[in-house]
Design a protein that fits this description.
The protein has about 140 residues and is mainly α. It has one domain: Four Helix Bundle (Hemerythrin (Met), subunit A) (Up-down Bundle). The protein has five helices and no strands. The chain has helices at about 5-25, 35-60, 70-80, 85-100, 105-135. Helix 2 packs parallel to helix 5 and helix 4 packs across helix 5. The protein starts with a helix and ends with a helix.
């Protein structure tokens, strides 16, 4: 792999995402509060790397990013067809922000369910697309 910033950050994303997937392989109903908080923290870290990979990849490809914020990057990534579903990405931003500012157990459970049902599958598909691009030598 060439020494390209987005690919380096993508490697970090892959490690973080692997840890998140490993944690999500557990039966969520059997986890205690501390374990659930650990999953949320892994999600927050994984998402932070994901949107920064998007930013770095678009910049590498020559796109000009006027506003560097997760929402702005996600919107541009959707417009430029780097991601297929902006709504899920925007929900991830909202849930990441919500979890850093609240400890409501009901919201906690909803976010854990969203990670399992929506975010993991979407991030897996996105990851596989980037891996395919790297393997093909287009990145």
């Amino acid at each position: 792999m060439q020494d390209i910033r987005w690919q380096q950050r993508f490697q970090n994303f892959q490690r973080a995402f692997g840890l998140l997937r490993e944690a999500m392989d557990q039966d969520l109903k059997q986890l205690n509060q501390l374990e659930k908080e650990g999953i949320i923290q892994r999600f927050e870290f994984t998402f932070e790397l994901a949107w920064k990979v998007l930013k770095d990849k678009m910049e590498h490809d020559g796109l000009v990013i006027d506003q560097i914020s997760p929402r702005a990057v996600v919107r541009l990534a959707y417009q430029a067809k780097y991601i297929a579903d902006a709504e899920v990405w925007l929900r991830m931003i909202g849930d990441r922000n919500l979890m850093s500012h609240t400890y409501d157990s009901a919201k906690f459970e909803l976010v854990l369910q969203a990670i399992a049902s929506d975010y993991l599958p979407m991030l897996t598909e996105w990851q596989l697309g980037l891996l395919a691009e790297i393997v093909q030598g287009q990145g």
